[in-house]
């Protein structure tokens, strides 16, 4: 077979130009899609996922166009790509499971962007849901990336779907403690914090006797955004009240 090197050179040049144009078009279309989808009421997670798919789709079309210019039959390339895809799919079953789980999470929507959730034993604010993983920002400022398969298969607790939530606080006091005095200190701390709600009202429960002492559990409802601050503040007030009343917490070895 005789090769026309001039034609090959031009075909290669055209293919390079097509690739360059496709690369630029991919960036331009990604920005355009970002602006267009940004005006829609779609959840931010869905928006980011759709925008992230624009570039690979455009680049894939560009590659097919460039291959056709250099004379490689698309059917042949498609068959080769199919074989490679099958081999890669067999080797990446776990990753494909993450993609399937990500699609189900997007369709079922157990949480949205900026929701605070607990999934796979980790708690944080949802920053993104992509094809393979879900990203959380933890209260201490760290970022955790969880495989979608792990998130989907386990229980998911969402804290921000309702405005208010309950905090539970536990104290274990010595068996000879004046319980009326301890209960008064806890009740005043629960009711006195500005973040606790009057309805439902705070409550105190005698949970029982443990190997250490008598377990007291205080419960109060607060806005979800204030739960951690309220819990810490109430603990501090109770501990100060216990110290003033000479009530000692039960500890091991005491």
Which class best fits the helix and strand makeup?
A: alpha+beta
Shape, per Cα inertia axes: elongated
Describe the biggest sheet? 5 strands, antiparallel
Q: Using only CA atoms, what is the Rg?
A: 30 Å
Strand line-up across the major sheet: 4-3-2-1-5
CATH architecture assignment name of the largest domain: Orthogonal Bundle
Number of helices: 7
Oligomer: single chain
Question: Briefly, what CATH class of the largest domain?
Answer: Mainly Alpha
Uncertain segments of ≥5 residues (pLDDT<50)? none
**Beta-strand proportion:** 15-25%
Distance between the termini: 94 Å
What does the secondary structure layout of this molecule look like, with pairings?
Layout: H1 5-38, H2 44-69, H3 74-91, H4 93-108, E1 116-119, E2 122-129, E3 133-137, E4 143-147, H5 148-153, E5 156-158, E6 164-173, H6 179-192, E7 203-209, E8 214-223, H7 227-245
Antiparallel strand pairs: 1-2, 1-5, 2-3, 3-4, 6-8, 7-8
Helix pairs in contact: 1-2, 6-7
Q: Explain this structure to me?
A:
It is a single chain. It contains 7 helices and 8 strands. By secondary structure, the chain is an alpha+beta fold. A 5-stranded antiparallel sheet has the order 4-3-2-1-5. It has a 3-stranded antiparallel sheet with strand order 6-8-7, covered by helices on one side. A hairpin with a 3-residue loop joins strand 2 and strand 3 (133-137). The N and C termini lie far apart (94 Å).
């Amino acid at each position: 077979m005789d090769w026309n090197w001039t034609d090959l050179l031009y075909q290669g040049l055209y293919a390079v130009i097509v690739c360059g144009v496709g690369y630029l078009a991919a960036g331009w279309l990604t920005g355009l899609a970002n602006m267009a989808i940004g005006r829609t009421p779609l959840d931010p997670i869905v928006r980011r996922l759709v925008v992230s798919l624009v570039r690979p789709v455009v680049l894939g079309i560009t590659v097919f166009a460039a291959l056709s210019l250099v004379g490689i039959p698309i059917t042949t390339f498609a068959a080769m790509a199919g074989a490679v895809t099958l081999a890669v799919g067999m080797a990446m079953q776990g990753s494909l499971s993450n993609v399937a789980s990500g699609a189900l999470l997007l369709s079922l929507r157990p949480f949205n962007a900026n929701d605070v959730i607990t999934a796979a034993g980790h708690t944080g604010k949802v920053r993104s849901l992509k094809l393979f993983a879900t990203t959380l920002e933890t209260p201490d400022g760290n970022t955790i990336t969880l495989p979608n398969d792990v998130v989907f298969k386990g229980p998911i607790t969402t804290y921000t779907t309702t405005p208010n939530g309950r905090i539970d606080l536990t104290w274990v006091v010595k068996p000879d403690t004046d319980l009326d005095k301890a209960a008064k200190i806890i009740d005043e701390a629960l009711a006195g914090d500005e973040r606790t709600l009057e309805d439902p009202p705070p409550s105190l429960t005698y949970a029982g006797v443990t190997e250490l002492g008598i377990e007291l559990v205080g419960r109060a409802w607060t806005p979800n955004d204030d739960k951690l601050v309220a819990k810490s503040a109430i603990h501090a007030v109770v501990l100060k009240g216990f110290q003033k009343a000479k009530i000692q917490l039960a500890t091991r070895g005491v």
